[in-house]
Write a structure and sequence with these properties.
The protein has 167 residues and is of the alpha/beta class. It has one domain (2-164): Ribonuclease H-like superfamily/Ribonuclease H (Nucleotidyltransferase, domain 5). It has helices at residues 41-59, 75-95, 105-113, 120-131, 139-154; strands at 2-7, 12-21, 24-34, 63-67, 100-103. Strands 3-2-1-4-5 form a five-stranded mixed beta sheet. It is globular.
């Protein structure tokens, strides 16, 4: 089973891809796509959609894992994040319909580091212990990989048939 973990954002979108074989997990890829701050927001949404489609075509994932939306003080930022999330979801699901699983930020951090309020650099360090030395270019990249790993630790062992998955 291939899990695509995505940390969506309107300026930086991270992704991490893992392969699950029974009780083993294998790192496949991770990266982040950065958009220029001065680029028109709606052009960024189109690029985010296209990136989702490219990722889905490249890895043909069986499940998409995302961080659930969090409360932010700025409503405008939340609206942009929600739109970016919708764009990447649309891109991935345009390729083919797959289950989508959401995980709370504290659960993701707790699953990877053992503490739900760990700083972002701790997530990257814990991932390196799990997958070996990696050079994460952004915390969005390591967060996306942590989301995919969280799915492995919480949902993946429970399913025998991906078609019956409900997250």
């Amino acid at each position: 089973m291939i899990v695509l973990g995505i940390d969506p954002g309107s300026r930086v979108t991270g992704f991490g891809v893992i392969q699950i074989e029974g009780r083993k997990v294998k790192y496949l890829d991770s990266s982040a796509v950065k958009f220029a701050e001065d680029e028109d927001f709606f052009k960024r949404l189109k690029a985010i959609f296209n990136q989702g489609l490219i990722l889905a075509q490249a890895y043909n994932p069986d499940v998409l894992a995302l961080e659930s939306l969090i409360y932010v003080k700025n409503a405008s930022s939340l609206a942009k994040l929600a739109q970016a999330r919708g764009a990447i979801l649309s891109g991935v699901l345009h390729h083919r319909e797959i289950p989508v699983c959401e995980y709370a930020p504290n659960l993701i951090k707790s699953s990877v580091t053992g503490f739900g309020h760990s700083p972002k650099d701790s997530v990257g360090k814990a991932l390196q212990l799990f997958f070996g030395k990696r050079d994460f270019k952004t915390t969005d990249e390591s967060d996306a990989l942590a989301i995919a790993l969280c799915h492995f630790l919480h949902a993946a062992p429970a399913h025998k048939n991906i078609r019956s998955l409900s997250c």
